[in-house]
Model the fold of this input.
Amino acid sequence: MLSINDLHARVEDTTILKGLDLEIKPGEVHAIMGPNGAGKSTLGYVLSGRDGYEVESGSVEMNGKDLLDMEVEERAQAGIFLAFQYPVEIPGVSNMEFMKESVNAIREARGENALSSAEFLKKAKDACKQVELPLDFLKRGVNEGFSGGEKKRNEIMQLIMLEPKLAILDESDSGLDVDALQVVAKGVNSQRDGERSFIVVTHYQRLLDYIQPDYVHIISNGKIVKSGGPELAKEVEASGYAWLAEAEGVDA
Amino acid sequence: MSEQIDQALARKYDAGFVSEIESETFPIGLDEDVIARLSAIKGEPEWMLEWRLKAYRTWLKMDEPDWAHVDYPKVDYQSISYYSAPKSMSDKPQSLEEVDPELLRTYEKLGIPLHEQEMLAGVAVDAVFDSVSVVTTFREKLEEAGVIFCPISEALHKYPELVKKYLGTVVPRGDNFFAALNSAVFTDGSFVYIPKGVRCPMELSTYFRINEQNTGQFERTLIVAEEGSHVSYLEGCTAPQRDENQLHAAVVELVALDDAEIKYSTVQNWYPGDEDGKGGIYNFVTKRGLCEKNAKISWTQVETGSAVTWKYPSCILKGDNSVGEFYSVALTRGRQQADTGTKMIHLGKNTKSTIISKGISAGRSDNAYRGLVRMGPGAEGARNFTECDSLLIGDQCGAHTFPYIESSNPTAIVEHEATTSKVSDDQLFLCRQRGLDPEKAVSMIVNGFCKEVFRELPMEFAVEAGKLLEISLEGSVG
Ligand SMILES: Nc1ncnc2c1ncn2[C@@H]1O[C@H](COP(=O)(O)OP(=O)(O)O)[C@@H](O)[C@H]1O
Ligand SMILES: [Mg+2]
Done:
């Protein structure tokens, strides 16, 4: 469903992605690991079309369509979802309003009717329950005053609401204790249905104990330097990223 | 990002049409004869003319204020016409059926149907077109409750003693340059009187519309709430899109006697001028309320229009335990300039005031909050809380805060908080990543920023205000 070919992208004057290839089929979970600064978040931003992340060369196709040709919101409407590493606050806009606008914008783009208030409310309550967020979080401003863990769970709540085709999780595990990690993983796993694909970006192997990936890729200095199955994550756990420095002459 | 925001902000003014209505309009210019003619047309009592002339003579000696953070070419007061009325109003219509259909269509276009069966349930409307009141709805129902709600010109005939007793008691004739001018030449506006102990059975609302070219609008509103009474009043304003600047200099006086409560809301959408600052309304307004013992006055305003705004709805908290509130959203874009805020004058013991001001600046506009909190020597145990937030959209606009605090009572407490934030790239990206287009994203973020103020508006108008902001921020569809 997603095909990334020889992708080069830069931020300001620095080229960050330097020839990245990745092929994702429907229903697959791809874990992306790598040291800080490797370009993991950059990949998520480039795929979702963030301003300031400029593609120099290469291509990205989603279900045969040129993704790079689409606006940010068009990509979202086409089914790309990014769970942010650092979710931002929108004071005064309740989670409920935000999700309602969002769900309906995406439904409209797909030619579906807007959800009725009752349908929406039911869906929102179910999503909250799945990630164990109290229902009053729906009334609170988007991420306003949320703890780090609550923000991460709120991202997964949005994932559940929006039913994307490809979900990109950017370090959804960072800063979580084991209990919260399990909640996040459970929420994500509930969305695995054989069709939806995932890119799970993580620095640590720990998350992958709970979200079983089909493939693990190690990214370093803007490219994938090693790919394998879940066992690759265990290897990283054991030896860290130091070997990359030797293999590639790169800071780890 | 700034490009998208610029697009989102490309202006559109829905109320900018001109109505083809035959009018009787005074030639331009102002002198004592003009005032006498104006007073005569309205058939005013002799004392009223005297009052106007005194105001005029005071005004002649005054200078136009220049301390506000606004910059505009001086107004030539001799090039304005001081009276304009639809011709069909000269024999005042006795009922809605007699009102010029073109006039009714104008209000319908603005979304204010004046036929009572089509109206928002529970809202009585007084519609003021250029210099005169066109129609007031739901009168009988209000009369049953003893509430008077009519054009002030009519009140001068029917209730001269009431008008005489209160007119100019809160905003004296010579209070300031614009108030003095208004006192000399005001044409119409609303008069509201709520008898002792009465809760007004419906929202009262006035819609002001400037239509004619080169006319000024000088309306005067007087609201008197007797002991223990309660009223909620809303004013809305629009004007056609014209290349010339037009002057609007209103005076609003509120009198809240012991234990009374007045809630005064404004949704102001005067034409703001074009992208380069051509045309638009000069909105120079004096609004002030007086609170007796345990009384409460609450000002809520959503201001999106006008080329230049100069406006400080204020409360004089004279009676012990009285309460003043000011909730404001002021949005400026293009070349708009707003200098607005409030004054809370604490005179009585244990008086309380709250100021929540939300300024939103976009384009190349300038938005200033100016607020005074004064604690008089008798303001034992008085308290004020001020929160002043500015939101910047893009990087060519300005936000300024000028808080003035004067305290002559050591037991009084004044708290002031101020923040300035931007619609950030991160917020915009989050919204778009969730499928919202940039316009929707900006308007949602702005609406969120204004939430505390919108909460204070009467239900029917909170939605309207939200939509108004959305339209003001919108580029293409309206
Ligand atoms: N806005 C930016 N401006 C300049 N450099 C950036 C910017 N964002 C990221 N970078 C740089 O790009 C590299 C990759 O960053 P990132 O994708 O965030 O890495 P990761 O998520 O793998 O830790 C880092 O060297 C980082 O400093
Ligand atoms: Mg990162």
